[in-house]
Specification:
The structure is a single chain. The chain is an all-alpha fold. 60% of the residues lie in helices and 0% in strands. The protein contains 11 helices and no strands. Helix 3 (61-78) crosses helix 4, helix 6 runs parallel beside helix 9 and helix 7 packs across helix 11. One of its GO terms (molecular function) is DNA-binding transcription factor activity. Residues 84-103 bind DNA.
Length: 248
Amino acid sequence: MFPMRHSPHFRAVLATPANDPGRWRRFPAPRQRVNVPASYLRQAAATMANAKPAVPRPRGRAVEQAILKATLQILTEDGYTALTIDRVAATARASKTTIYRRWATKEHLVLAVFAELPVAEPVAGPSLEADLITLFGQFTRIMENSPLRGVLPNLTAECINNPELSAALIQVNEQRRAPIRQVLRHAITRGELPADADIELAIDVIQGAISIRLYFLLDRLSEDWIQGLVRLLLKGIGQGRGTGKTKR
C-alpha cells in the first residue's frame, strides 16, 4: 500500500540517525522548470524552417552511376594519380564499402568507366572499303563526343610505371580492336583479302594512325582523311604477309 517505503531513497533515510541534519536531504531534489525565452524559441524555429534538407545518398544503379561519374570527373580534372577511393567516395557521396563491394581496385573503376563508352558496331556492307569507312565514322563520332578523349593519353602515359593499369587498358583496347578484326576477317571470307593477310598488324596501323591524329596532332578524323587511310590500308593488306611474319 505504501510503495514509497520500498524505494532506495526512503530506505536510506530510515538507515540514517534521526539526529542527522542531512537525513531528509537524501531525497533527490525536485526537478526545476526551465523557462526558455520566447525569442530563443522563435529563432530556433526559424533556423529549422530555413535549413536545407539533407541530400540523400543514391541507391542501386544510381549509386553506381554516381561513382562512375565521380571517377570520370577526377580523371578529367586532375589525372590518374589524383584518383583515390577516398576521393571518389567523397565526390559521389557513397561509402568506401559500397565502392569496394563493386570494384576491388581503382583500376577496376577505370575499366568500368571505359565500359560505359559505346563500341563501334562492325558492319557487313558491299565492300571492305565501305565497311571500314563506316566503322571509322562510328569511332570518330564516339570519341569526338566523349570526355574520355582527354583522359586516355594521360592513362596511356601512366601505364609505363603501372602494370595493373596497363593490364586494365589492354582489356579496354581489345574491345576496340574486336570490331576491326571482325570486318577484316569477313573480307577474307568474301575473297577481298588474301587468306594470309596480317590482320593484327593492320589493326596496329589503324589504331596508331587514329591515335596520332586525335591525341598528338589534335585534329579531327575528317571524311577525306578516313577514306585516304582506308585506301592506303587496302593496298598494303592486299599484298598479304609475304615473307615477314608478325608475332602476337
